[in-house]
């Protein structure tokens, strides 16, 4: 990373994707959580993914069958990140 330590750098979509599940589970560090929250505030795509994870989590908590469509969306999102890596600097 070229950014000097201690300086806040906006989180990129691929970074958010890595911690999104932990974020939804409330298992990220406060600093990470804040940065993800900040990203979700300005990135509709990641906010949508977070909502999808919550949907899945809630379904699991209720022991409902998981929405297959939601799983497919999450998988497609992960695959799109692998195929076409965003540069990590969303316009905000
Ligand atoms: Zn994003």
UniProtKB/TrEMBL annotation:
InterPro entries: Anti_sigma_zinc_sf (IPR041916), Znf_put (IPR027383). Residues 13-47 form the Putative zinc-finger domain. Keywords: Transcription, Transcription regulation. It comes from the Bacteria. The keyword Transcription applies. The keyword Transcription regulation applies. This is Putative zinc-finger domain-containing protein. It comes from Streptomyces smaragdinus.
């Amino acid at each position: 990373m070229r950014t000097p330590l201690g300086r806040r750098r906006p989180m990129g979509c691929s970074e958010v994707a890595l911690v999104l599940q932990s974020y939804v589970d409330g298992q990220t560090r406060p600093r990470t959580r804040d940065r993800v929250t900040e990203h979700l505030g300005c990135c509709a795509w990641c906010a949508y993914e977070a909502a999808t994870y919550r949907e899945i989590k809630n379904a699991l908590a209720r022991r409902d069958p998981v929405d297959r469509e939601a799983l497919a969306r999450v998988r497609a999102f992960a695959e799109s990140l692998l195929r076409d890596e965003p540069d990590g600097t969303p316009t905000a």
